[in-house]
């Protein structure tokens, strides 16, 4: 019974003597605990003839307190006994280096503290602006929507970003419900989608699904594609993936739409649009806004993959690209870099995949106010923001950069660049330029040149 106890007692003196250390000419380890950095400083100052005076309590912390780490003070420590001692010059040099390290660390700490304070001040200011704007939207604008929505005051307030609490309501009102969809109609198409999912899982083979998906007359077969795409929707949020709180909701809205519009079916990218709406609206309202949003001419052209219409949109975009950013336009032309390479992803997801979610919602705010024109204006704003960087890149790097934009992009910088974009060419606005392109195409006088004749 006492075997382990006796062995422990026998090993104890062996650890203390540490014979193994002596074999290699090293001294046994110290019995006392490691010294604190403050004690090291005190001992050093005592040896050099200077008495250590602790700072008064009032001076300990005014704005910033910097406590040097123990490793920082190691440079002041004497060498082990088996090594040559420091010379006076070396000790003074180490002291100077230590003081410089502490001073530099203090500077960094002060700089970081000022940065944190600035961020906090901006955040408080933003929260105050949102709170005051919310009162105006709830008490003044929403009750008088039709009469106030087009006023200059409301448009300016709209540009600054909608308060999250009223965002969904304003989006719904701005998008409208030209399709006259009711919550009851949503339930009908949701039931149909559930029936199709059930039939797929029970009877359909993979080949049957592929054949049905290839049929234009029955795009409902694209219901199976929804499952694959949902897992890729805002993966960093972990709320739309299987088991997440919004997974089934997103699945339902997309499934119901696919049955509602079998001529369009499900197209990759729709999940991001539906997800943003679900985060701001109730289920049925999200479906109504989603169906009406995708019924707009621009979205319908892209999601139905109408190549001729898509080319017209790209051509109109290039008109304003050349007008606003001529140097970058020529740079892109020199590499034959066409708008479809970067615009398709931006338009398909309404920037919700390419930009941070809060910034994408601000883009949506003004998109609901100004329509399709703002989508292309935002694209030009992004190009303007990164113009200097893009001018130094080749085809591959430009395509990679615009496919995955920097994550540190801020709303202030982007919206100031968007505001600098003038959507006017030869006294023609976006709608007039687009109409000219449509007319020229019908007449067969314009094939490749994106700019309308002035």
TrEMBL record:
Coiled coil, from the record: 88-123
Keywords noted in UniProt: Coiled coil
Q: Give me the gene this protein comes from.
A: Tbc1d12
Source organism per entry reads Ptilonorhynchus violaceus
Q: Name one GO biological process term.
A: vesicle-mediated transport
One of its Pfam families is RabGAP-TBC
Spans through the membrane = none
The protein's matches in Gene3D superfamilies, at most eight in alphabetical order, are given as:
putative rabgap domain of human tbc1 domain family member 14 like domains, Ypt/Rab-GAP domain of gyp1p, domain 1, Ypt/Rab-GAP domain of gyp1p, domain 3
Q: Which GO terms describe its molecular function?
A: GTPase activator activity; small GTPase binding
Q: Which domain of life is it from?
A: Eukaryota
Q: What is any one of the record's Gene Ontology cellular component terms?
A: cytoplasmic vesicle
Q: Which residues form the Rab-GAP TBC domain?
A: 161-371
Q: Which InterPro entries match?
A: Rab-GAP-TBC_dom, Rab-GAP_TBC_sf, Rab_GAP_TBC_domain
Q: What is this protein called?
A: TBC12 protein
């Amino acid at each position: 019974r006492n075997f382990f106890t006796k062995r422990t007692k026998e090993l104890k003196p062996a650890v203390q003597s540490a014979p193994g250390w002596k074999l290699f000419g090293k001294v046994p380890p110290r019995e006392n605990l490691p010294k604190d950095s403050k004690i090291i400083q005190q001992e050093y100052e005592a040896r050099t003839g200077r008495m250590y005076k602790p700072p008064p309590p009032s001076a300990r912390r005014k704005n910033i307190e910097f406590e040097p780490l123990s490793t920082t003070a190691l440079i002041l420590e004497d060498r082990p006994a088996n090594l040559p001692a420091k010379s006076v010059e070396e000790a003074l040099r180490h002291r100077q280096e230590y003081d410089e390290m502490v001073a530099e660390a203090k500077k960094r700490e002060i700089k970081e503290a000022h940065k944190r304070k600035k961020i906090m001040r901006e955040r408080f200011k933003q929260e105050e602006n949102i709170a005051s704007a919310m009162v105006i939207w709830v008490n003044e604008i929403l009750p008088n929507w039709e009469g106030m929505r087009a006023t200059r005051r409301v448009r300016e307030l709209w540009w600054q970003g909608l308060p999250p609490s009223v965002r969904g309501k304003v989006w719904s009102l701005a998008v409208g419900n030209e399709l006259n969809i009711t919550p009851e109609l949503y339930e009908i198409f949701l039931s149909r989608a559930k029936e199709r999912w059930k039939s797929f899982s029970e009877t359909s083979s993979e080949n049957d699904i592929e054949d049905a998906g290839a049929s234009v007359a029955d795009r409902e077969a694209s219901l199976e594609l929804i499952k694959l795409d949902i897992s890729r929707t805002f993966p960093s949020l972990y709320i739309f993936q299987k088991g997440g709180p919004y997974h089934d909701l997103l699945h339902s809205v997309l499934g119901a739409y696919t049955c509602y519009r079998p001529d369009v079916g499900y197209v990759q990218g729709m999940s991001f649009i539906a997800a943003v709406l679900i985060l701001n609206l109730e289920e049925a309202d999200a479906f109504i806004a989603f169906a009406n949003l995708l019924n707009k001419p621009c979205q319908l052209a892209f999601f139905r993959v109408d190549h001729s219409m898509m080319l017209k949109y790209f051509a109109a975009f290039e008109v304003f690209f050349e007008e606003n950013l001529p140097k970058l336009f020529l740079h892109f032309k020199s590499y034959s870099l066409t708008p479809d390479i970067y615009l398709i992803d931006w338009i398909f997801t309404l920037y919700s995949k390419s930009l941070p979610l809060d910034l994408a919602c601000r883009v949506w705010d003004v998109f609901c106010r100004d329509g399709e024109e703002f989508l292309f204006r935002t694209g030009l704003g992004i190009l303007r923001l990164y113009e200097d960087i893009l001018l130094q890149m080749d085809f591959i790097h430009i395509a990679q950069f615009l496919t995955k934009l920097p994550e540190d992009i801020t709303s202030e910088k982007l919206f100031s660049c968007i505001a600098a974009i003038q959507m006017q060419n030869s006294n023609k606005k976006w709608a007039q330029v687009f109409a000219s392109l449509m007319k020229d195409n019908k007449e067969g006088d314009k094939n490749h040149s994106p700019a309308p004749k002035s």
